Amino acid sequence: MAAAAAAMTMSEAWPELELAERERRRELLLTGPGLEERVKAAGGRLPPRLFTLPLLHYLEVSGCGSLRAPGPGLAQGLPQLHSLVLRRNALGPGLSPELGPLPALRVLDLSGNALEALPPGEGLGPAEPPGLPQLQSLNLSGNRLRELPSDLARCAPRLQSLNLTGNCLDAFPAELFRPGALPLLSELAAADNCLRELSPDIAHLASLKTLDLSNNQLTEIPTELADCPKLKEINFRGNRLRDKRLEKMTKLHEDLGEKRTAATIATHDLQAVRGPLLYTARPPEGLKIVPLGRREAKAKELVRQLQLEAEEQRKQKKRQSVSGLHRYLHLLDGKENYPCLVDAEGDVISFPPITNSEKTKIKKTTCNLFLEVTSATSLQLCKDIMDNLILRMAELSRSTSENKEEDVLSGTEADASCGLSDPNLNLRAGKDGQCPLVVEQVRVVDLEGSLKVVYPSKADLLAVPPHVTVVR
Fold first, then answer.
1. Quick one: which of 19, 61, 104, 256 has the fewest CB in 10 Å?
2. How confident is the model over 242-297, as pLDDT tens digits?
3. What SS3 class is residue 45?
4. Dist CA 25 CA 74 (whole Å)
5. Of 115, 153, 109, which is closest to residue 131 (Cα–Cα)?
């Protein structure tokens, strides 16, 4: 009689589970003020009855300060689970028993808990075979992690997004950046930690697009970061970088490079540019380009692919906005022809406002640069942006000299000084130890050979610092 009464009490305590079983539901959300006491009564774990719902694809248990461990049976009882959200609970210091294997799991959100470590047996799942073979998004932000599991990449080899913001990490495990470890990782966020060093091996993240390491204790950025072929967005604010030029460079991109609705800025390795250049417009079906970090594609196919990526990004982040170059796709809506810059060999080296070509991609060794500014607003806007860029580059150059005098400038940061410039900039150390900027004049003519634009003309760049030489 007593056992029957206890069973009835437990059944009444979790009516959501009976309803989910009766209606064969694939999604279940447990939250609210009553959850706290029920989980406490279950020993700080989820009730075993929950793990008898094998049809579940989505499970969320959030905002429960009594939940300290998911409980045994999750992996065996929920084999079809695609999304597991356990945020703002009290999970920690580990996960015992470990979560995996969960063969179908794609999204795992453990943010806002009290996790301190995720060692084998008390972590995400086994590494051999992978415990989370389909996992795409992992959110560990807002915990107390002092280190990541060294086998994370083997446990979740298909990871695309990793959020580690707001922990106590002082380093990434070397295994995270080994060649081929995470070939699909495109977003890495580790702001507000205690990171002191960034390994050059980060270049092995071939799909990395977004990197946020703001508010750490980094002093240097490895030059190898430039070898990440798809990297579009970086944030190093709030670090102790010995060369302040990187912060100024980031601000430069924000102030000018992000305003593609008014003008588009593109940079090229001058040594790879084959002139004369032709600025023209072509139908989407007839415009071919090898975009940065991608294979050759027609403009129409490229835009379609980017649109699909944008939709997937919205779904994963559950928001309307998108990041990266996806933000500018709407600028092409309704256009019968797309603008492009074609070199003397007939190759498209620029497709504004979307992308440059891999052919003229800037490398670590690049110091002779070609800057392209495109605007549908006005010619004067283009000139204003050119002026602004040159003056800022002059400021960066002066900073370079100051850092050299202090014997602080590293090889990493020296390479960074060649990352952005105006029409043709040749950076060479002068006799006085400074790095002068040489700006050479560019002439634009129409198809008949009539002169249309000269930059810089005698009316442009009237006041420049002494270490900037303008060749007109």
1. 19
2. 655 455 545 544 455 444 556 778 888 889 999 899 999 999 898 999 887 788 88
3. strand
4. 17
5. 153
- Identify the CA nearest to 371 among candidates 395, 390, 355, 354: 390
User: What is the pTM assigned to this prediction?
Assistant: 0.58
At residue 139, φ and ψ (nearest 5 deg) are: -115, 110
Residue 88 has pLDDT above 90, yes or no: yes
Give the neighbor-by-neighbor strand order of the sheet with 468-471. 264-269, 368-374, 424-426, 437-440, 468-471
Rounded to whole angstroms, the Cα distance separating 87 from 64 reads 9
Pairing label, strands 338-342, 348-351:
antiparallel
pLDDT value at position 255?
Answer: 57
Distance from chain centroid for Cα 233: 5
Those residues with Cβ within 8 angstroms of residue 213's Cβ, 6 or more apart along the chain or in another chain: 190, 191, 195, 198, 234, 235, 236, 239
Give the distance from CA 273 to its chain's centroid: 28
User: In which residue are the tokens 């356990």 written?
Assistant: 86
Centre a 10 Å sphere on the Cβ of residue 15 and count the other Cβ atoms it contains.
9
pLDDT tens, residue by residue, 141-152: 999 999 999 999
> How many CB atoms are closer than 10 A to CB 364?
16
In whole angstroms, what is the distance from residue 33 CA to residue 191 CA? 32
Structure-block tokens of residue 113: 């808990």
Length of the chain: 472
Dist CA 200 CA 189 (whole Å): 17
Among 66-75, 162-171, 438-447, name the most confident range.
162-171
Confidence of residue 417 (pLDDT cuts 50, 70, 90): very low
The three-state secondary structure class of 124 is coil
| Rounded-to-10 torsion of CA 9, 11, 13, 15 | -150
